Amino acid sequence: MGNKEKWEETVQERLKQAAGSLPIPEKLEPGQMETWLRGKIDAKAQTKQGQAEQQAGQKGGGVMKGRKKEGGKKRNRYLRWWGGTAAVAASLAVVLFAAGRSIDWGQELGGIEEAAEGQGYAMGQTEEHAAKGTAQTDGEVEEGTTYAQLYQAFSKVWKQQEEIELHQEARASDTESAGAESGAQEFSMEENGVAVDAGGAMKESSSEGAGSYGKTNQQEETVDEADIIKNDGRYLYQIINQEKSRKHSIQITDTKGKLQKAAVFGEFDNEISNMYVWGDTLVAIESGWLNDTAEGGGGGINPLDGIRDFMEDVFTGEDGDGYRETAYSKIHIYNIKDRSKPKESHAFTIKGSYQDSRISDGYLYFFSMCNAYRPKLEKDYQAYIPEFDGKPLSPDKIYLPQGADTASYLVMASINMEQPDKFADTKAIVTAADKFYVSQANIYVADSEYVDGGTQGEQCDSTRIYRFSYQDGKMKKEAEGIVDGTLKDDMAMNEYKGHLRMVTTVEKQEVKEVKDDITGEVIGYDSLNFETYNNLYVLDEGLQAVGKIEKLAVDERIYSARFMGDAGYFVTFRQTDPLFSVDLSDPKEPKVLGELKISGFSEYLHFYNKGLLLGLGMEADEETGVTEGMKLSMFDISDPSNVKEKSKRLLEGYDYSEALYNYKAVLIDTEKNLFGFYAEGYQEEPKYHYLLFTFEGGKFKEVLNIDCSGQGIYSYGQVRGTYIGERFYLLASNGRVEEYSLADGSKSGELAP
Predict the structure, then answer these.
(1) Do residues 106 and 270 make contact, with C-beta atoms less than 8 angstroms apart?
(2) Going by C-beta distance under 8 Å and a sequence separation of 6 or more, which residues neighbour residue 76?
(3) Other CB atoms within 10 Å distance of the CB of residue 184
(4) DSSP assignment, residue 173?
(5) pTM of the prediction?
(6) Which pLDDT tens digit goes with each residue over 649-686?
(7) Class of residue 728 by CB neighbours under 10 A (exposed 0-12, middle 13-18, buried 19+)
(8) In whole angstroms, what is the distance from residue 628 CA to residue 154 CA?
């Protein structure tokens, strides 16, 4: 495989990972994206309008989940790309980016206007904090810095960003003049917005639910995770899009007797990305953008006009051109003791785009990513300091790592669910980390650092990990470490007996300058001696490697991973699917026990009953590696040194499922021997079905196959399933709920939107 093909494979994988972590609007579903792309290709990808959209996306500076942030010499800045890959990748990046930015932040941001009033922005308070900050020692991350130190650290990144933008503008101008004659296209993975998560128990409500019911599929049994649907054994909760008003709301459905709506509440202008149900408390997480082009957010008086004027004044640029959109997250707390009359009791506002969250030991832990923008004046802290309820975070709660090379923060907050009226703790760390794993004792955040394609020399991508302990809502940075390679997803990390186990895919290459033969001017960079392989690490509490296995499955990538006790399993892929089993009983001497090679690959692994491991993925041609539709595999892992594929089932005609990339899209209860997911197909006839299975007698048995293609009434792409006792419920994002018998598959009830 040549360099071009390897780069294309890398781009496709990272785009897939990024897209899989985002909530996908109906217009961006694979079928409609395919139609859209075909139209774009026919009309030529490089039109002036497309260039204008791409430049606007590059200047926007917002944060989307899964994309790498703006800065740092360690980030990818490939200024040359092959035409075929670039055209599709750039189009996808712009569309996904635009989808995230089309949101208006029209809700009141509690306390933020007060903070902005008169451009005071708590100046006295912040300057006092700045004077109290402490310096950090080399190679360590210490809690506490100063605003001046932050400004100085960010200034280097801002300067690099300006240089890149000037370079891109110049290249765009050249491209416009020259047309689309050249096959090579300028494309930076990072600047175009792309860089490239089991069963648990929720706290049961006091409702009358009896027997078993579906819970959110989560990584740690005792650490609850947010989702778009919840189930407490009687009531069903779902985030819905009201088709008439285009508003986002939350619907509560009572399943006792006949299906009926208990309540529909909270008409939000912005996306409700996730929610929790914790006893008689419901948490709704709203994501939005502060956009100076919104002109009042669609009519009426916008409560953010004052802050908008202030921010236009703060940011650099002529005539306000330097203004950047700012992402905000809002945490709404509702009392739902009376399910028919939910009452909002409090709302928290955090600057930054929502990334992830958990509830553990009665506390909500919330993570967002906040960009630091360059202000006109250093004292304009609002441009580059995180905010909580409109107030800047004091510098004594900010970690500034030595040598930080990104202008963004991971923002962390905790809330006591027993008294959710104030933040229990707030923290921030300067990093572009975008992967999270929360064990019963620690929070791990991982920052992927990719090869810099604009710097000469032998290079290898890497992952920097931070460990925060947490107890009673208090978070403390305990350790920092770095390993070679990058993580596929959160499931590639696991804590056991004080050790963090993780698997990474390593990309190594030699970068060389390409010079003009006549002038000697550097006109680009080329990559040579490209290597891909996989590593397994066992890290101690200080995040130092005590054991490792390196250079596994050369020329392949990690597609899925799962750890349980003293064993680990992970899948790599190129043409076939090697399932590796690893003995981790001795942290200092991890050993590969077995390697099972079968066709295709598993994107998701789940420990099933009696020594079984379920794999959900794609079938593929053993010679070419071309995918041929979805498949289920059940592996016998009773003897880890001799893993066998006990059974497999091809899901003919199905090409895509959110479950492949988002484990919370999988309904699974191993004790009930039941699992299901929504799947789509785009072959001869499009398919939109919810599939429910059991595993009996060594074979997969289909329990339900529900056709969800009826005139769009199921809201394509946002269909989930859950169960209560012997009844299965299908929930669509438009508020539709259907009830089926698990005994015979018959439909027994329906609730229309």
Answers:
(1) yes
(2) 68, 188, 189, 190, 195, 450, 451, 452, 453
(3) 11
(4) H
(5) 0.75
(6) 999 899 999 999 999 999 999 999 999 999 999 887 88
(7) buried
(8) 47
